[in-house]
Fold this protein.
Amino acid sequence: MRENPLVLHVLGARPNFVKAAPVVRGLDELGVRQGIIHTGQHYDALMSDVFFADLGLPEPVANLGVGSGTHAKQTAALLVGLEEVVEAQEPDLVVVYGDVNSTLAAILVCAKLGIPTAHVEAGLRSFDRGMPEEINRIVTDSLSDLLFATSPEALSYLATEGVPAAKMHLVGNPMIDSLFAALPSLDSSRLEGIPARYGVATLHRPANVDTPEAAAELVTAVLEVSRQIPLVVPIHPRGRARLAAAGLVDGPGVKVVDPLGYVDFLSLVKGAALVVTDSGGVQEETTMLGVPCLTVRPNTERPITVTHGTNRLVTPAALPAAASKALADGASTPAGELPVLWDGASGPRIARVIAAWLKGENLSPASRNGRL
């Protein structure tokens, strides 16, 4: 290892930025040299640039600007762009986050070049290989040298897949670190035109929006929920046209808004009486904020949000009745029941493991269970 090793973080979509910020800060405090590659997978300023500002991330050393496209075209562009930047930067470790195509491409490039990698949010499984993200998770974890898990069940999934225990580290959830840091700034009154009592809906998964039939079924259910409570819907570029064609924007109880920055979005969620989503990260954020969450999916790679949080899986057909019950019951997550190590200190834990690894130090069993 070089005397002054370099760590590169590959970020492609807004959840990546939220997870990376605490790790970047933690490594900075330890004096580790680092840089960010922004792949531009989320290319809209409202989907990426504002997150750099909200989270205090440094300017990237490269922005590939790959934009959208089919999985094959986007991944191919990422492979070509990342190979060029990684070879030029000569990092000692590349850190990837989550399960987007940028993560998959970075892992493949580094595996071919013989560059060590670390995966933050390792071991999450939906056990649904119809989800492109599930394929990305499995491949990424199989090739990573350091695997940082957010919850105990993730460690068991990795062990079942044959990952050596020495590679795995239970560190908690860095997304919750970012939420803790943002809490003092969260205030839904900063957003204009929001009703006093409202729900939030975020919908973008391929299974929900990529066919006219699925989008129509989902929109019908969401519009029925909007008759119970006004809904604010930040529209993701993915599926915007399909959801609009299905009539989402025409609902009298629906207020469609552009994608929001990190603090604005969390402010919206914190003030909501209900959240309807198909996003993974939102399931975690609502668990922490104690907001009832209905996830319109048959499965989740974050089961801890169901067992320890406010999340419930529903079908589109069951959504209106589930919303009625959630609105009547309300929800809160007592601090004592939050998932283990979701305490706002995950970024420093990850940073300490990386710093020790860069020095070639043998990591103790305690470090692998969140006690380093």
Q: What stands out?
A: Residues 140 and 348 are 22 Å apart (CA to CA). The longest strand covers residues 6-11. The two ends are 22 Å apart (CA to CA).
